[in-house]
């Protein structure tokens, strides 16, 4: 049993659909440092901090100028947080939508399976039919292959739907790639703000210590207002960073899931088309009946064009099936094998989907939790924004260049 | 005003005249005036011809007397008067800006800004020119934006209310008090400039934000084509 069935078996072995592991919550302390900053950026940011602290020390602790500087701290990174948070809605959407999409592909696969099961040679008795068990009556084999003719339109329609479902998955992945790219940029900006807030924290701390004796009032003001707000902002920034990193990872999970599903759909289409082609050849060998499956032939060409591997597989297979059907005494086994391939593929997909769905759900739950937490911080940031809108418009000392 | 102040003022004036924003603004203003004049001329021509045709038709039934000619001249004159009156561009009022529909809002605000320009200090004019250009860019985007979206609301608030309020507020301050520091320690000129800078930045940000969806869509489509026809390695 070399030839077609053998090669089918082999290709089946490579179809391993790896369910992605769920994304766990990223602790805020570990969120920083994931996006690397280069030395030039670091020095620039440090300069900003130095300039700011110098201005702060120069101002009288009770002057409005000092208050303005402190306001600048409460406002620090507001835009970066808002940007990153604006995207969090979308990345929360993605896994949920992906689960739906999986559903539509799943329906098509289930329908394909039902249709294929009707044609399964294992379920049909192929021996010549006899009326009352004695008189030969009709031709079961012929009837069986006639079943293909009536099923072909249906199968072709399902396969076309699967192909467009696959396109949807690819589109989804394209969108995810773009989103990850923008998220990466947002994370880079958050990282810079985190660097600023950390540098500001140490710098203000040492400054307050230095001023302790010369100007205790200012040291106190720095500790109680500036330093307090810096630490608050650090927490906000780190929380947002954690959520964003998590969303970034979750997007990767959705993407991997889609890639696996695309593989599954590809394989299901290939094995189905292969089985139908085998049936055409076997019909000729067994009943000398020319089974013409126009829909499937048409589909062959389009599928072969779209999926390279399918084209390759089908080309080599056709030759092998022909050879085998002509030479072999048991062509029906070849056909049974071809059907078995479809079932194996679909079972693999089903098993994959169960696992993938579980890890997706888990990821969404954790992410929803974290996004909810960060919303509280964002609300506070918005409050700070309102405050500055009503106040005078001082230029933001921590503003990042684009 | 000291000599150095005057020198700076002159230099600013030169900069203003040659600044790109200002030139674009000027050429646009000219184009607008040309369009308006052309429109008015066309309407006048149409009315005159219509009156003449009416006179000729009347002539077919009645003999033309001097009274008829007089009547014709009178009717034409009245029609001209109405058209000329209607063609005078009304001064846009800030209260109107709040109610104009979104698609026309940028142009209306721009025109209103144009009329305010003369009353503003030199550095503010440059900012106003920049804002005018941004409004121009924003117009096609707003034409397709659903007015019920939060972004639409934000933009309307900014260019329909907040910006006019800022400039109106500045104009209400007596001219003598605008330049220097008031006894309360407030600098109207500086505050106007700061405010306009914020508006300018916000406009830029909103324009970008509005375009974000389209940018995303384009990038996604490009990536999708890559994924579908070239596989995952590309890109």
What can be said about the biggest beta sheet of chain A? 2 strands, antiparallel
Class by SSE composition of chain A: mainly alpha
Using CB atoms under 8 Å apart, which protein chain pair has the greatest interface? A-B, 15 and 17 residues
Strand content of chain A is: under 5%
What is the 3D form of chain A? Answer: rod-shaped
In DSSP terms (H or I, runs of 4 or more residues), the helix count of chain B works out at: 9
Can you give a write-up of this model?
The complex is a heterodimer of chains A (402) and B (235). By secondary structure, chain A is mostly helical. Chain A contains ten helices and two strands. Chain A has a two-stranded antiparallel sheet with strand order 1-2. Chain B has helices at residues 3-18, 20-61, 66-87, 94-97, 105-116, 122-143, 150-172, 175-178, 188-230. Chain B is flat and about 80 Å long. Chain B is mainly alpha-helical and 235 residues long. The mean pLDDT of chain B is 80. The chains are: A mainly alpha (402), B mainly alpha (235). Chain A binds chain B through residues 167, 170-171, 173-175, 177-179, 181-182, 259, 392-394, and chain B through 191, 194-195, 197-198, 216, 219-224, 226-228, 232, 235.
